[in-house]
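Moderator note: this is an archived Q&A kept for reference. The question asked for a predicted structure of one protein chain; the sequence and the answer are reproduced below.
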Amino acid sequence: GLAVKFYSSKEQIQDMLKTAGGHESFGPKITKEVRSREHARWKDALQRAMDLERWGKGDEEKVKPLKAPRFRKVAGIKPEQEGLNLMLKMVEKPNVTTHEEYHDVVCGDASGMVTLHLRPRHFLPCEVGQYIRVQNAYVRMKNG
């Protein structure tokens, strides 16, 4: 789905990219020592219950780390492109007086401007001049 977050300065964006790489980071709920002790107890109980050594050890699957998103410029957008990650500055905010489900929000960066078709919950917290992070967007051409 679409992920949107708002920033009031470029420094906040740079801090976010340095610390989390575009992904929210969460700390573990238990310490490493407690986790290893619990794992050892679980492994011992499982070993005694099922005697897994006679079956041999299987290959351990490696967990792939999340890739940091690559943010692109508006000038590099192509028709029918999917999975776009953009850092934009809000230029024009629509008035939400009608009960439409989607509204057109004008945003841009140094290379150009683009119109985003967003639900009010995605753009209402943001004001004109603030930065908006758009992830996993796709291009839909409207009127050429």
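Archived answer notes: The chain has a mean pLDDT of 81.
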